[in-house]
């Protein structure tokens, strides 16, 4: 049996947002060099199209859309909370919080509640919705390598899922961040690291 | 020291929605007898006003707003999922999913992500947002006694919170449901059962 | 297909302990009337034997074994924590914390970490271990109806499991507690309420 | 006010085990070069002694002690599960699963349930026990940098805690692993990275 039976596998896109991936996104200047070098958007597009053709579930885990004052009264803002607040990232209704049009959601996809920090599972219904569909394998891509991608992968493993990283369908602000996730961490905690081509070659 | 210091206590309203509490709400015919008998809306209003005056945090845990097709492909719908689907409860944009106007949210209140089932904590950011404000005591009211109220209280205790039920600021479909939560269950797992007057008398 | 395919179903025994079920258990005086009336131990035995024969997984969720001082420094003891402390319930190494010999664990059974309060899922590895075995349906029995049984069932549903109560393989301190769980609550949140005979009749 | 008030702060030791830190530990050959270079054990000892003197809580999050057959029937073993099984790591009753004697637990310390994978919070009662003591800040040290330390830190942040890494009271199998956690990841998701001396200098 394939490691990725269609009925049990979801491609899980974490923050595939214009903010990171599109000209005009507020973080695009930071991700552009890596995204261009690895072909993140083109690979995400092929990944999602191939997965849809093979009948896999597509799931989206998107970052909190800020409406102003969201962090007022918090005791312990972490760097990503401060960045979101101070740089006005992920503003509700903005271009940045839209999913990149090449991997736009379709009816029937899983849309998890928005996450506040890094893990797509923390404080959301992602685990519940995956379980309701009988999904026990997640294939993770999106942004940003060493924060949301890494954290979502770690949570997936702790929750009992099989967790695969698509190493050329992610981006980050530096090669060090890419290396930390792809070469150092995921091989220590996850189940597989594959390129888009390798993964698509394993489907049907 | 009071059991309810203002900086550490939130009044947590679970599903204080028109669907349950207002003429025209789809479940109001079922809750109206109990709600009228105990004065649920009037007590909720006094509870929230008193808590605001005393400087407590107000938190809202609201049910998922259905947009159609939300339960497609699910393996295991429970009775509340089936009811929401079949009776078209909690429809996004409807009168029913609005908070009752007498206890409407104000800027600065905690608005947790919507819950799919019964516990305001399950698959939501409620615990995270309470922690970020330093809240460790929750005072629970709303609907429906033996489902969302009871489940949210049980989760609160398991998560380490002090959990109080306001016995006359809830409603249910039958007196048996009220009794199960107020007289049988909460005294077994929770920290306190108080009327609105008793609780307000302990503030300031 | 059966609602209870062997490879996907676990009989989940919550606190099937001598403390509740055996002469000499500290809580047995409180559960004995109900346990005798419904035949709890005999039904638990038939339930587990039938499930083992049919190839189902058996899982145990057991209460924390107290070693003395366990609750020192806690902010918010609930009634069950206070009871355990003051009545010296569930003492490590005692007769009371042993599983009733008629339903003793066998090699290969799932043994979840002990729980502190009521839900067998809260603060334990039960969900993780069930997932690692591919279990998505739980059939719950044990003690005490309106505390651990009810809470474990609520968590199961919130986590995406199909949750069945075996109504004559549980016990409680009063008929009100039994009624609250069997007749009022489980039908509102769970997927099925069956007797031992009804459930066994649905297996292979 | 200090960032680390004694009543609200715990030094959280993740896997400070002989297996990693002592001659004879099965993983010590892999951690010894880094542990010697940074002085991990000596720093852990000073960290814990200083924290005890200042009145902070000490908490332990220890890895699952294997008893044989623990991973039988699991669907998705990750690399650390396979390593534990195949190399017979963390065997119950062995020298390796004992806490290093220089930082041995004392009565009143928090002892969380054992974790199966990397995060000290996942599938354990750690969050519950910290909350019961009113702890909202954790200061993390132990092993191994990019697995258990990194994962425990990520969970702490997602759960609403202030999370500090003690960069010279951890160890790993390579400098790349240390760098990934200390220089790349923690500064992206956590609240502080301090040496033992820096942290102790901030207490009382």
Which characteristics define this entry?
homotetramer, 204 residues, alpha/beta, 39% helix, globular
Number of strands of chain A: 6
Strand line-up of the largest beta sheet of chain A: 3-2-1-4-5-6
End-to-end span of chain A in angstroms?
Answer: 10 Å
Shape of chain A: globular
Instruction: Determine the oligomeric state from the structure.
Output: homotetramer
* Helical amount of chain A: 25-40%
Extract low-pLDDT stretches of chain A.
none
Number of helices of chain A: 8
Biggest interface goes to: A-D, 37 and 37 residues
What is the secondary structure topology, with strand pairs?
Four copies of one chain form a homotetramer.
Chain A: E1 9-14, H1 18-21, H2 28-38, H3 40-53, E2 57-61, H4 79-86, E3 110-111, H5 126-132, E4 137-142, H6 145-158, E5 162-170, H7 175-189, E6 192-194, H8 196-201
Parallel strand pairs in A: 1-2, 1-4, 2-3, 4-5, 5-6
Helix pairs in contact in A: 6-7
Structure description:
Four copies of one chain form a homotetramer. Chain A is an alpha/beta fold. Helices cover 39% and strands 15% of the residues of chain A. Chain A is built from eight helices and six strands. Chain A has helices at 18-21, 28-38, 40-53, 79-86, 126-132, 145-158, 175-189, 196-201; strands spanning 9-14, 57-61, 110-111, 137-142, 162-170, 192-194. Chain A has a six-stranded parallel sheet, with helices on both faces. In chain A, α7 (175-189) links the parallel β5 (162-170) and β6 (192-194). Chain A is globular and about 45 Å long. The N and C termini of chain A lie close together (10 Å). The model of chain A has no long low-confidence stretch (mean pLDDT 97).
């Amino acid at each position: 049996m394939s490691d990725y039976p269609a009925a049990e596998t979801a491609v899980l896109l974490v923050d595939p947002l214009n903010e990171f991936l599109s000209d005009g996104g507020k973080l695009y200047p930071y991700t552009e060099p890596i995204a261009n070098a690895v072909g993140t958007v083109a690979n995400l597009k092929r990944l999602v199209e191939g997965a849809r053709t093979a009948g896999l579930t597509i799931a989206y885990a998107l970052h909190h859309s800020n409406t102003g004052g969201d962090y007022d009264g918090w005791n312990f803002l972490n760097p990503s909370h401060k960045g979101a607040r101070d740089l006005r990232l992920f503003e509700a209704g903005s271009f940045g919080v839209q999913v990149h049009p090449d991997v736009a959601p379709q009816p029937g996809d899983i849309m998890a509640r928005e996450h506040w920090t890094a893990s797509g599972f923390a404080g959301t219904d992602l685990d519940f919705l995956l379980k309701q569909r009988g999904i026990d394998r997640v294939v993770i891509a999106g942004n940003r390598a060493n924060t949301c991608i890494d954290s979502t992968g770690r949570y997936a493993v702790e929750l009992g899922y099989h967790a695969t990283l698509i190493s050329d369908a992610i981006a980050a602000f530096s090669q060090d961040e890419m290396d930390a996730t792809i070469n150092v961490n995921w091989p220590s905690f996850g189940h597989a690291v594959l390129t888009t081509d390798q993964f698509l070659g394993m489907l049907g």
